[in-house]
Amino acid sequence: MEIGITGVGHTQFGKSEKDVGDLMLEATMGALSDANTKIGDVDAIYVANFSSGFESQCHLPAVLSAKLGVDKEITRVESACAAGGVALKQAAIALESGLYKNVLVVGVEKMTGSAVDDATKIIAAAASKQEMLHGATFPSLYALMARAHFAKYGSNEEHLAKIAVKNHKNALSNPLAQFRKEVTVEDVLNSKVVASPIKLLDCSPITDGAAAVLVSIGGGSSGVNLVGIGHDVDSINIYERKNIASMPAVSKAAEKAFKMAGINVGDVNVTELHDCFTIAELIEMEELGFCKAGEGKNLIDEGRTEIKGDTPINPSGGLKAKGHPIGATGVSQVVEIVRQLRGECGERQVKDAQVGLCCNVGGSGATAVVSIFSR
Ligand code: COA
């Protein structure tokens, strides 16, 4: 694959006064300016977005067209929290087909206008209706996965708390992060219970934000290139999964991405993965192959997933502390990896990073996109 990431843009994550249109516009202009190009050079745009439920607006291609003042081929891509990763894959397919030369991928979600109870219901639309009938919400589904992981592998609440502590610490040096506040293991363990064993500080927050990347055919030796991408979708029902403490879609997507890139997990220097709840980070690091199933807790205890460790994970602060504007998240992960590979991340920079990986997950692990970048 010969695809370069030629520009990246990213709004502040958190609570924003801007509407979805202005958030998309800000991220788009950021990516165009970074690429030193103009909207006239962009052939098509993919907009990643989860739900019209938050803002009562689903026709985002037309909203963006109005904001940009241009007529373009703009397509909205929905795939729950993995919308950004799937939109990137669609852009890559379109470029490889020869249809376009420059494609913009813009992810956006504006969530804070909804009360938390309403937001929880809107987000639960990405879960199984059958499981929802039994009271499932995303925090409670991930709580079940955590309980299963604890029982099967001997992990515990403290391992999850250490993930939150690391990601909050990393976000301190990310000016675009929603929470720039250090927390301790005790803070996490003593925070209010959302769905036991998941507590407030194990959760990603409700966030507004947008991110954009310009992807262009050709790539080049001096920039950052997309070298592999894999996508997989599993059943929406977690009860159908043989092992609830696993996300088979992640390992299948990773296998495809590594095969396309012609590298293996040991070659990855920096990773942004989908820690919508801390247990998701633990399961995904195992599914990606950084260790065997059940051994993720050792990597956490040994500090290996810290920025200075040998397997740095979520230097941006992850979804936990950077924030999780659902449709924007997969694109935001790519922005961070591109900035890491360019060496632009200051205090949170992973030293000498040459190869980076993004793992974007939808629902409780049903959709996964793994993308690999190198410079
Ligand atoms: N992490 C850290 N702090 C958080 C937080 C989080 N996830 N969510 C809220 N806070 C902070 C707020 O900033 C606020 O701090 P303040 O008192 O200093 O202002 C305080 O905690 C209370 O905030 P509030 O909005 O009242 O919390 P809440 O109980 O209404 O909502 C959650 C908390 C965890 C329920 C909500 O953030 C949530 O639903 N998160 C999950 C979102 C989700 O499911 N995403 C999709 C994943 S698949």
Task: Characterise this structure.
The protein is of the alpha/beta class and 375 residues long. The chain is built from 13 helices and 11 strands. A hairpin with a 2-residue loop joins strand 5 and strand 6. Helix 1 (20-35) packs across helix 2, helix 3 packs across helix 13 (326-341) and helix 7 packs across helix 10. The two termini are 14 Å apart. The model has no long low-confidence stretch (mean pLDDT 97). The structure holds coenzyme A (COA). Residues 81, 116, 120, 123, 138, 179, 194, 200-201, 203-206, 276, 324 line the site of coenzyme A.
Shape: globular
How would you spell out the order of helices and strands?
Answer: EHEHEHEHHHHHEEEEHEHHHHEE
**Rg estimate, integer Å:** 19 Å
Low-confidence stretches: none
How would you write the strand order of the largest sheet? 3-2-4-7-1-8-11-10-9
Number of helices: 13
Provide the helix percentage.
25-40%
The largest pleated sheet is described as: 9 strands, mixed
Kindly estimate the percentage of residues that lie in beta strands according to DSSP. 15-25%
Cα(first) to Cα(last) distance is 14 Å
Total strands: the figure is: 11
Task: Provide the structure class.
Answer: alpha/beta
Ligand kinds: coenzyme A
pLDDT averaged over residues: 97
